[in-house]
Amino acid sequence: MTNAAFFVYLSASCVGVAIVALLLLIFRVQSDRRQSKNMLMAFVIVTFLVGLLYFVERFYTGDFEVRGGWSVIVRVLDLLLTDAQLLFWCRFLQTETDTKEGWIRRGSDIFIVAAFLVQLCISLFLMDEHYYIASAGGRAFATAAYAAFMALGTVLLAGHAFLAGRREADPRARGFHIGISLLLLLDLLGGSFYMTMLFRSSPLLDAGLYAAYDFVSVSFLLINILTAVYIYRCEIGGMIEIAAAPAGQEERQEEKARTLQERFAQEGLSQRETEVALLLLEGASYDDIADRLIISKYTVKRHAHNIYQKLEVSSKVDLISRFR
């Protein structure tokens, strides 16, 4: 491992620990958007563990070909953590953007689980200790599987990034969602291409091995830095603004809420629909609204549907841009 890669992995690990500490602090202060924050916490922890696994592999072995019985454990951990990282990120985006289409969540879950199982079978039953696949048929199958994984993974991440960019009203959060999705996409493409070269024992492998995994270390550091900036600007920054707000600002917010209530009443919204609409304008998710109003998530969805119809808007983003 080069000195630069060593310090990049070390820095990424330190930033990851700091992010977990920040999220734990926010959990104690705020109770809203709990599901979204849980998904972000899981994503950060898995990202930290993936970086730690790669760091330990290179620090103790000098390469990624772990010998003996540890080889199986390392391969399974590598696949499990990298696919879990993708799963938690997609779940986080779905929660943040209030994705209502059930087929999107089911489709992403099925793809990630299927990809993990196929990769696991290739790794355990086709590859040797050096990750090489001897049989021509096995190499052809593994190449096709990884090509499909790259293509479908690209569609999955690009689709979630598109939905986040379209449905997220906060430009700071939108930039974070798209930026992390692009970094994960680069990791996915780079890792899949590297594995294809590895089990084919390609001559391109030796030249690009350390450059590829030095890039992986940089991508983990960038993911953690972007996450830390996002948490500070969108979570802690908002808490500081509220704490430092002048006394008159609270009265202005109450006056704005009364004005919106009167306007919603004129548009034909019921009292409960008005309560839901005000929470939607605050950026609350359906789960958060259900918890705060002590109603079911399906009731919240029904109220939101009625609100959108009566106010002639098509989505939460349209509602926020029109009334905030």
What does the largest sheet look like? none
The domain count comes to: 2
The CATH homologous superfamily of the largest domain corresponds to Rhodopsin 7-helix transmembrane proteins
Number of helices: 12
Radius of gyration from CA coordinates = 23 Å
Terminus-to-terminus distance: 52 Å
Overall geometry: elongated
CATH architecture of the largest domain: Up-down Bundle
List the helices and strands and how they pair.
Blueprint: H1 3-29, H2 34-61, H3 70-96, H4 102-126, H5 136-167, H6 171-199, H7 204-244, H8 247-266, H9 271-281, H10 286-293, H11 297-311, H12 316-323
Account of the protein in words:
Helices cover 84% and strands 0% of the residues. The chain has helices at residues 3-29, 34-61, 70-96, 102-126, 136-167, 171-199, 204-244, 247-266, 271-281, 286-293, 297-311, 316-323. The chain is mostly helical. The model has no long low-confidence stretch (mean pLDDT 77). Helix 6 (171-199) runs antiparallel to helix 7 (204-244). The protein has 2 domains: 3-241, Up-down Bundle (Rhopdopsin 7-helix transmembrane proteins), CATH 1.20.1070; 247-323, Winged helix-like DNA-binding domain superfamily/Winged helix DNA-binding domain (Arc Repressor Mutant, subunit A), CATH 1.10.10.10. The longest helix is centred in the last third of the chain and has 41 residues, at 204-244.
